[in-house]
Design a protein that fits this description.
TIM Barrel, 9-stranded parallel beta sheet, alpha/beta, binds zinc ion
Length: 346
Amino acid sequence: MEHTLQGTIIYGDDFEPVDGIITIEDGIIKEIEKKKINSDTIIAPCFVNAHTHIGDSVIKDPPYLPLAELVQPPNGLKHRILAQTSKDDLIAAMKATIHDMIRTGTCAFLDFRESGSAGVKALKEASNGLNIESRAFGRPMDNDMGYLDSCEGTGLSSTSDLEMDIIREIVLNTKRKGKKFAIHAGERNSDDILPAIGLEPDLLIHMIHAEKREIKLIKEEQIPVVVCVRSNFITGSGLPPIKKMLDEGILVAAGTDNVMLNSVNMFSEMEFLARTAIYDDRQVFKLCTLNGAKIAGLDKELGSIKTGKKARLMILNKKSDNMHGIRSPLSSLVRRARPDDIIRII
Ligand SMILES: [Zn+2]
């Protein structure tokens, strides 16, 4: 089935706004014709949310507690609540969050999933049949690493939360299976950054407290980083040196982190990134789309509007009360647009 869309297209890997017509066949972008048209819409690639914990969907309004008391395994509040939640309730809560992601323009997400094999299975069940790519990083439970057979790899909380010998064993088992190893680092302080880098991870989360030396190391080792600025702000952890990491050529993507702390709305994440960290709208949009797709290994299909990629697009109303009179479609999309400006998601 072939159909066309017309509007201001946020085009290619540089996200250059151009007016034109997109031809879509069987869900794939077949042709992009640049053409002067009178359009009321912006056509943008859907988001990739590069770091979530959607198991937290069962606890959306926690009390104000220090970060460790909320999320640190095994006894942080979220882990106590997860342990008390029935499988059906967990899946229903995660399903609602996934629906919310789709509705707010996200086409893929990378999740840190607790509770071993059962946790990864629950995520698969929650996302089953929905129009979104989910990638899970599981976590061992009771020494069982069976989850590795059905997900991307392992995602750990911090080298400060477990014995290093145990972590090394987990990393070894993960790599033996040909899977990826991801870990939070530099969130509370800088203590866990060098130990994390020493584990040769495939992905680092946060890096708020990374200094020049650590940034150089990450660059040398070519480790991608996911930043979660709204989460960092709420937990009072500070803000990551995104500009410095980008200047070094490090692959940086953005995530909304714990559903307990934040909604999964990537428009909020973009607005916050644009206001606090980068002051470069193109880079902000890239962090929220193409760079996440690269980290997920999905950039041949998703993350930007190019011929041959999947047509996972959001069509936004340029004439909504919020967007009325905008002059720069990309800047307004990044700093101002909201989910209620979306007319349609493909
Ligand atoms: Zn996290």
